[in-house]
Design goal:
Elements lengths: L14 H9 L5 E5 L5 E2 L5 E4 L7 H5 L19 E4 L2 E6 L11 E6 L6 E6 L12 E8 L2 E11 L5 E11 L5 E7 L9 E8 L6 E11 L12 H8 L5 E4 L3 H4 L22 E2 L5 E2 L5 H11 L2 E6 L19 H15 L5 H8 L10 E4 L9 H18 L4 E4 L17 E7 L1 H6 L13 E8 L7 H16 L4 E6 L3 E3 L10 E3 L10 H11 L4 E3 L1 E3 L6 E9 L2 E8 L5 E6 L5 E8 L17 E6 L4 E6 L3 E7 L1
Parallel strand pairs: 1-29, 3-14, 3-22, 14-17, 17-18, 18-19, 20-21, 21-22, 23-24
Antiparallel strand pairs: 1-26, 2-25, 4-7, 5-6, 6-13, 7-12, 8-11, 8-13, 9-10, 9-12, 15-16, 25-27, 27-28, 28-33, 29-32, 30-31, 30-33
């Protein structure tokens, strides 16, 4: 990939002055990288944690872009829907599309009507028309033999960004499936709605029923029922190693019945009822188990599957299941794993094959629950973890299993050999820096997933926080024989509907408005520049305000990651014996509160090439900056 370094040009600072600063002879901090020896570093070190929060799935990375398209839930409303012309719309309870989608959208057209009638959908606070070929799918019931026009229309302007005429022949006896393509022109913003319209005279005095209306742009990797490429491409550029899904709190649910049920997220979308999500909105579950796994396959990510482990949130005071009450849910997880891993001759493997995937999925890592140290889950977790661990390990001994906490008071003693633990840390920038040596001083019996971490207390990631995260990450990478996997959280944020801040990648429905935050650039820099062996570094200075870690990918490829958590420029010399050239990637800003937002992105990329003098590279770290020196 082509990777951009990062640095903001402040008023009065020229690119020439910055470049000169990078190449000046320095007398500051001196680092010597030892090319021999070292500790093995995890190949899975940097990844993603995903759950449907902030409309990051529905309305976000999931490619279906119409809101409330299936009128799902026990009390549906007409959110996002409207009528066109001399017609009215209502929710119909008497003409179910399927048992999973029992409600349809009824269009009532009065006798004597003429002119255009139809229905509109405004999407998730707009529709991002990216100029690609769009696909629409829907079911219709009612007496009609004529054309329905599908259009994408600028709200207030009437500009048509895409339109197609679809011949339809349906009756009032059964639903008829309709699909069509729309060529589109890119819209300048997300203020666009979708319209299905027809000649009112053709259906005057009758009703039409629309079931599960869907609209997709051309998806990431052209995957059916796939991802929005405008977001997926930004994730792909990180070159991450794993995806932890489907949560997070959204796995647990607010109640036993509202937990994430894997078997209701598979198969045709018209057979998925969805669920009331944990984060204040309904989940369609169009982004289901197989879609997560295709996401991993298409992006080259190792799946980290989280399973429900007998504990629902229930507003923070859940009562965990224990004893025999756990048995059905343990069995349900075994069924889920058979669906994922079983041969097509097995009962659940055959269901997977019928859903279009003959070969088993490549899942080797499973986390048991989520944050079971919180909300009343700790006292029962040792029992619950053991019940799931024993059942899974007996049938799938090659699967690595992770406990959802590292709190020893919540865990069985001793922990099973080879089991991992999960550590989460949302913290202030200063607090993250204070955790730099945390992993230097912990029990090394179990390996770690750092499943969630980030700066907190701000709307969007700020530069000081991104540097604090980098210091924390350097501390992890120095111990990456122990820290096997780490993922910033939350990952995505539709700014119109936000339950948690900050997030790695905010976005609006304007097709180009996907924000690469200061934290995003740090994640990208650290992930793209990875070695397989952590090297010893000697220095004439103690850690702080500058922090560092070095690694190698071969005898001739080295990476030195640095963070300057301070307001003063720092001079550096880095010696890697025998190496002559290096690429320096830099992200920073004089203002510690600088942030890339949907309105502006003052932190912009820059990259430079350095030559060594007898293996020594000299450069400066500006205030509040993170750098990666990639030498060869």
């Amino acid at each position: 990939m082509s990777f951009k370094g990062v640095f903001s040009l402040k008023p009065g600072l020229s690119a020439l002055s910055i470049c000169c600063a990078l190449f000046q002879t320095v007398q500051g901090i001196s680092l010597q990288v030892n090319k021999s020896g070292g500790n093995a570093s995890s190949s899975l070190m940097y990844g993603f944690m995903f759950e449907d929060i902030n409309h990051s799935g529905d309305g976000g990375i999931y490619g279906q872009i119409l809101r409330n398209n299936g009128l799902q839930g026990t009390a549906p409303d007409l959110t996002a829907w409207g009528a066109v012309g001399d017609a009215t719309i209502a929710i119909d309870f008497d003409n179910p599309l399927t048992t999973a989608i029992p409600h349809t959208l009824r269009l009532d057209v009065a006798s004597g009507t003429s002119g255009t009638v139809g229905v509109t959908n405004t999407g998730y606070w707009g529709i991002p028309v990216d100029g690609s070929e769009h696909q629409t799918y829907f079911w219709i019931k009612g007496d009609i033999s004529g054309d329905i026009t599908a259009s994408l229309v600028g709200n207030g302007t009437g500009t048509i960004y895409g339109s197609t005429s679809i011949p339809v022949s349906s009756t009032s006896d059964n639903f008829t499936y309709v699909d069509a393509s729309l060529s589109t022109e890119k819209a300048p913003n997300g203020d666009v709605y979708f319209e299905l319209s027809l000649d009112g005279a053709e259906v005057a005095g009758s009703s039409l029923y629309f079931g599960l209306v869907q609209l997709f742009p051309t998806t990431y990797k052209d995957r059916y029922n796939g991802l929005q490429p405008r977001i997926a491409n930004v994730l792909e550029a990180v070159e991450a190693s794993f995806l932890r899904f489907p949560g997070g709190n959204n796995l647990e649910g607010e109640s036993l019945d509202n937990r994430w049920k894997w078997n209701e997220t598979i198969g045709p979308v018209q057979d998925r009822p969805g669920r009331e999500g944990t984060w204040s909105y309904y989940n369609t579950d169009g982004l289901g188990l197989d879609e997560y796994l295709y996401w991993c396959e298409d992006m080259g990510l190792s799946p980290l599957l989280a399973i429900w482990a007998g504990f629902a949130l229930e507003a923070g005071a859940g009562t965990p299941l224990t004893g025999d009450a756990l048995t059905p849910y343990v069995n349900d997880v075994l069924n889920e794993l058979e669906y994922i891993l079983g041969d097509a001759s097995t009962a659940y493997g055959a269901i997977r094959a019928a859903n279009g995937r003959t070969e088993p999925w490549d899942v080797t890592i499973v986390e048991i629950g989520n944050e079971d140290n919180l909300g009343g889950g700790c006292s029962s977790y040792a029992e619950r973890f053991t019940a799931f661990y024993d059942a899974i390990n007996e049938k799938y001994p090659d699967v690595t299993l992770i406990a959802s906490t590292n709190d020893a008071s919540c865990l069985p003693s001793p922990m099973p050999s080879g089991a991992m633990v999960d550590y989460h840390d949302y913290n202030t920038p200063d607090g993250l820096v204070g955790q730099f040596d945390y992993f230097d001083n912990i029990d090394r019996t179990s390996s770690y997933l750092v499943g969630e971490y980030a700066q907190n207390g701000v709307e969007y990631p700020i530069m000081q926080g991104a540097v604090g995260e980098a210091v924390f990450m350097i501390g992890m990478e120095r111990n990456s024989d122990l820290i096997k996997m780490a993922s910033y959280a939350p990952l995505l944020q539709l700014v119109n509907s936000t339950q948690w801040t900050p997030n790695l990648i905010p976005f609006t429905q304007s097709p180009d408005n996907v924000v690469e935050t200061t934290s995003y650039y740090v994640q990208q820099m650290f992930s793209v520049n990875r070695g397989d062996t952590i090297k010893e570094v000697t220095s004439d200075s103690a850690f702080g305000p500058v922090y560092w870690v070095a690694s190698s990918a071969s005898d001739s490829s080295y990476f030195v990651k640095l963070a300057n958590y301070g307001s003063d420029t720092q001079d550096l010399s880095v010696n890697i014996n025998g190496l002559t050239t290096a690429k320096l990637t830099l992200v920073g800003d004089d203002d510690p509160h600088a942030a890339n937002t949907p309105d502006e992105s003052p932190v912009v990329p820059v990259q430079s090439t350095l030559s060594s003098s007898n293996g020594t590279f000299t450069f400066t770290l500006p205030a509040w900056s993170v750098a990666v020196l990639a030498a060869s």
